[in-house]
Amino acid sequence: MREALINGSGAASNDVSALETLGPAAKLTDADPSEIPPASGPSRENAVTISDILERRAKAGRLIAPTASYSDSDMFKGPQVGKPKSKSMNHHLSSESLSRHPCALKQAARHLKNPGIISLGGGLPCAEYFPIESITLKVPTPPHFSEAATSQSGAEVRIGKYDTTDPSIQGTYDLAIALNYAQASGSAQLLRFVTEHTELVHNPPYSDWRTCLTIGSTGALEQTLRMLCDGPGRRDCLLTEEYSFSTALETAGPLGLKVVGVKMDGQGLLPEAMDELLSNWNPEEREGRRKPHVLYTVPSGQNPTGTTQGLERRKQVYEVARKHDLFVIEDEPYYYLQMPLEESKETGSGTTAAKEGEGEGKEEETVESFMSSLIPSLLSLDVDGRVLRMDSFSKVVVPGSRVGWVTASENIIEQYLRHAEVCNQGANGISQVILYKLLDEQWGHEGYFQWLMNLRREYTKRRDTMVTAAEKFLPKEVVSWTVPVAGMFYWLKIDHSQHPGIQAGKGILEVEEEIFNSCIARGVLVARGSWFRAEQDTEPNELFFRATFAAATAENMTEAIRRFGEAIRESFKL
Amino acid sequence: MREALINGSGAASNDVSALETLGPAAKLTDADPSEIPPASGPSRENAVTISDILERRAKAGRLIAPTASYSDSDMFKGPQVGKPKSKSMNHHLSSESLSRHPCALKQAARHLKNPGIISLGGGLPCAEYFPIESITLKVPTPPHFSEAATSQSGAEVRIGKYDTTDPSIQGTYDLAIALNYAQASGSAQLLRFVTEHTELVHNPPYSDWRTCLTIGSTGALEQTLRMLCDGPGRRDCLLTEEYSFSTALETAGPLGLKVVGVKMDGQGLLPEAMDELLSNWNPEEREGRRKPHVLYTVPSGQNPTGTTQGLERRKQVYEVARKHDLFVIEDEPYYYLQMPLEESKETGSGTTAAKEGEGEGKEEETVESFMSSLIPSLLSLDVDGRVLRMDSFSKVVVPGSRVGWVTASENIIEQYLRHAEVCNQGANGISQVILYKLLDEQWGHEGYFQWLMNLRREYTKRRDTMVTAAEKFLPKEVVSWTVPVAGMFYWLKIDHSQHPGIQAGKGILEVEEEIFNSCIARGVLVARGSWFRAEQDTEPNELFFRATFAAATAENMTEAIRRFGEAIRESFKL
After folding, report:
1. What ipTM does this complex have?
2. Averaged pLDDT of chain B
3. Checking DSSP bridges between strand B543-548 and strand B527-528, what pairing results, if any?
4. What positions does the domain Aminotransferase class I/classII large occupy (chains A, B) (predicted)?
């Protein structure tokens, strides 16, 4: 056990094999994670480096981007030499999206760049009436990320109202800008950071890629679905993993979309199964629904199954997407929580040095080695421009900022912005200026990667606590799992066939509910597997529970797993 | 001129009368603003007072509302003695809205109130990994609101990560809560404040009213339209003022809604015109569109016309809504920017004392007199529960928070929340905790009202600067206006019939564009009236420009109006 891994690019299984954990469809492919080659995607060759970025910035000089000024990624990208342009994806767009036009008032703002112009145009309040003179943050200094270290050696970062116009400060971003209205794309300041970060990590293989900020991936997904899908009019479906993020399913349903689940194995979505499904699609057998043209997938630490697609798997998924002309929504909140099993064996749990994030692990991990260890994204494989990637700060900085970003081709981002202008006006400025000050000015790209490295060490320890508890307290005769190599979820398969209730004719949902209630009574809350079933209108034939190792302390997590084990034993009369 | 007004409840006109300013339909009603009685709505009788609120809070003790905890307005409202329940408005809901169910994961959170339960349920990150130890704000101390006073005597307000669980602080809200995920309704802490504020100001006349936070009124409007309207399926229309907020129009269009404009006069929307329109609605003459059942209106300082509905007008609008079973979306970003003309004459412009907001005006305005001077809202007249009111912090605190709130009946708010859970997860926590600390803990209700009083004094001065400039620089033979008594917009009617181009056969849009471009060339940006036309598919027969007095300095505003006057003179060959 746990011997398989390899630079975060595969999955390991406990004594119940990954093939079996997710059911018979797994047999369509060879999913033994130990056979997955180490990650080495196209994006690391000719990769842009942090030094390139710093050089580019030095050449450009101080970024001047006053209130509500227009910006886009092209202002911050490096030269896209030798890359083709994206292919048009306009045939995927819904009639709602195609009928959108730019906001008249936002468009008028382009005249504001004329020297000396006085605006009586937009209804932007005067910064004089913003009742906040300054915001001061106390934040960690890389690589001293722990709460204790921050308390001792953290930095005080001040954001004043007029930092950009005060000649003695010459700031790049300030409260007068951040507290006012802004463009839906996000502020130039934070857009620059995420554009550069995206180029550093993904370096999309076509030239006209862009990013824009979002109000978080929840909102980004709803916007994207409305942009690409038309349930009532076009009879659209949405493809996704057979178990998928419940909120995503709850988003798709009311839009009139039929969600279609694709079989999975220990590495998540099965390309062969998707190919077969699409090749044999017959609208007449599908209530008149046309063949799906949009896939929603979570390649790393998938919610709820915790599975991670290796590089080869991603390439196969992308090839099937090309073959059937799918547009792909790549939702990657857990991308940086890729947790190699090797490292987890070495760091163990609870050593203070590692906890402090001082980089004192046995093998000195560098930013370069960290970046190389990440499995390449679908975005980095996307030669066509058929992927929209959703990134999030929720799992790696704070969820309460409600700020994320999307990356796709210029055309797609333009359509996205047309919708954002009327449905949310983009991310809030207060969070943007705080994130900018922390990530860009205080930490920089290097410091942010160090933070992410620290975070994945922490999550690795948490996962290992859960592995230990599960091995100790769960009855293996009925509970099995694959140790996740990314994310924050543990997916527990229960062999319902051995359950006395099932044997006496009860349904799976009924048994699931009994166990769930028994868990609540014993003082542990877990998520029911049925909440995540893509096709809610079919009968389940498997029984799962999802447990997260993200939140509880090590002690509580262990106790919670003990209680869960007790509930299972009682229910199965073991 | 400017002699008419009276407690913010009417509108005054310059030498071109209000009746004429907005065209012939105005003649349907008597809109002479001087005849409007002073505001005295139902909401000030039996009104809840700030002392009532303080007493209620003292009884309830410290608010305990940890991470992602459920809350609703009923926890914070006073007794609703003698009020009827709202009527069901479910027949207004779209099929999209009716198909929504509560989020499985959010629902599961209700088990978290069980003592001793350990959650492995939701994917909430651990606060230990939030890289912000504290946020410190510098903010004004009432009533010393000016920037200079804040710099000298402002308060430092600190928000720590664990203020609520630190026994030495016993805080109500902290970063560990605010930076994590939360309920879509908003945090209990800020929800309490806006619920109490709503009760103080509007005291809705039915018992089961509720509020919930929003991501700002832009997003709230899109959500509400999708909740109430169905363009493609039900062939719905949206009623609104004949000139309306351009972003609202741009929101409705792609949803397949046909926008239908209602004639206006100097007090905004004309109830008789709306009644006539609805009484004579014939789907066959309207491309098969069914009779409109939703009205979107901005009663105070309407955008773009700057008109304000007096109390009698509001009552009439509400009665027509009842007669035709309309659901009303009341969008009130400018509600507190009601600017009595009397006061503006007294305070004049530029006196330092008034600018400092020290309350040294000639007549001592009290919080009570301020509240009594506000024209009652449609919400406060709404005995049926057919109004959804949208409130915003954008114009009165900061737009960059992207936080507002809506008030409506319990059923409507429930449907709103079902949508919010999947389309944005509610307002961001960083802005919420900052607004809470400022408005609730630092200022309290009393201090916030003082802030609003200060703000309306400031806007009154700004409006008066524009009045003075307009009277000095605009050629009255072709430009006319009504002095606005609320909001931030000046609506300038141009008598196109005198234009040489029009006389030579040019179209109004062509002349509008020429003048707009001439303005840009002369260094002033104004908004074109045609951007705001509700029915974009008809030919315009009037010519307007909108100017805001919200943003530019007095000097720049005056210069900008001078340039605008120059552009007009040149275009008209005066």
Report:
1. 0.90
2. 89
3. antiparallel
4. 210-564
